[in-house]
Amino acid sequence: MKITFPHMGHLHVPLRSFFSRLGVETVVPPPISQETMAFGTRYAPEFACLPLKVNVGNFLQAARLGADTVIMAGGIGPCRFGYYAQVEQEILRDLGVDLKMVVLEPPQGHWRELWHNLRAITGRASLKEIWRAGRLAWRKLTALDELERELHRVRAREVTPGDASRAWRQIVDWLDQAETLSETEEAAHLGRAHLAAIPLREDDDVLRVGIVGEIYTLLEPAVNLEVERVLGEMGVEVERSIYLSDWVKTNLVLHSLHLRNDREEYRLAAPYLGHFVGGHGLESISFTIRYARSGFDGVIQLAPLTCMPEIVAESILPKVSRDMGIPVITFMLDEHASEVGMRTRLEAFCDLLRERRRQKKRSQRAKELLP
Ligand code: SF4
Hints:
Number of helices: 15
Number of strands: 8
CATH topology of the largest domain: Rossmann fold
Helix content: 55-70%
Order of helices and strands: EHEHHEHEHHHHEHHEHHHEHEH
CATH architecture of the largest domain: 3-Layer(aba) Sandwich
Bound molecules: iron/sulfur cluster
C-alpha cells in the first residue's frame, strides 16, 4: 500500500512521520502548483469549493507518483466538507484513476470505526506502536506551530526581507527529517536559534493584523497566495485564528471525549450570530471581536469563493467592524486569484491602518496636552 493525502500547510510533516513510522509507504503530493490547480479545475465541478479542487489535483499528482490509497478526513455539519471524500472518490473513479479512499471521520464516541480504518492502513501495528507514532507526529506538529508563531513575529521586523522565510523552509526540513522525539526536540531547538539569529529592526512600530476565515485557506500558503509572507515583508505581524495543532486538539481529541468547550466563542459571537453555521464561520466573528479587544490594528478574512459559512460571516463582519472600531477586509479566493491583485489591496489596507494609528496617536497627544 502506498498512501497519500491532501496538502494543507505543513500537515504533510506529521502525517508522513506518523505513517512512515508505522511502516506504511507514503507518497507526499508535489507542492501545490499551477498544474495542481489546472487538474482540480478541469475535473472538479465548477462551483465546488477551492479546497476540493486542490485536493483532486493533489491526488492525481500523487497517483502519478505511484500512490494507490488516499487518506482523507471526513466531517459533519452544515457545510460541504462532509461529502468531500465521496465527491472526490466519484471524480477519481470517473477518470479511471485507481485510488482507494480511506475516510477517517472524527470519532465522536465511535472509536471502533476509527480503529478499524487505522488498522486497514497500518496492518499489524499494535496500539502501542500507533501511540508512539502519534506522539512523534504530534510533537512535530506542535513544534511547527510554535515556530510559525515566532516566524510571524520575526518576519515583521527583519532587516533583510526574505531572511525569515528562508529560515522557515530550513526549519520545516529539519523537523520533517527528524526520526525520533529527541531529534525533533533538537530540530525545534535549532529552529528557535535560527530565527533568533535573524537581525531585526530596532523600531517596533509594526502593525498587528488578525487573520480569520476558513481553515484550509488560512493554512495553505499556495491557496492564500502566501498572504502571511506578503504581510510580514510589509512589516505587519500576523496572528491566525487557527493553528493546525489547536484544531486537532479541539476537534479530534477534546470533541471526541466530549470535552470540547466552545462556550467562549458562542458567547462572543452571540450579539451577531446565535448558532453554528458550519466550518469556522462563527469563529470568524468571535476572533474578530477578540482581536479588536486585544488592540489589533485590523482583521483579514480569508475564504474560498462560495464558502457558505464564511459568506455568512462576511455579511456580519461589517457590523462587527463598526461596533468594535476595527477595519476588516475580506478576500474570497478562487483559482483565478492573483498575488498582484491581493498585494494591491493589502497595501491600501495597511496604509489605512497606519493612518488610523497615526491619528490615534495624535488625538492621544492632544488629550495629554489639555489642561
Ligand atoms: S468550510 Fe467552506 S470551503 Fe470548507 S467545505 Fe465548507 S463550504 Fe467548502
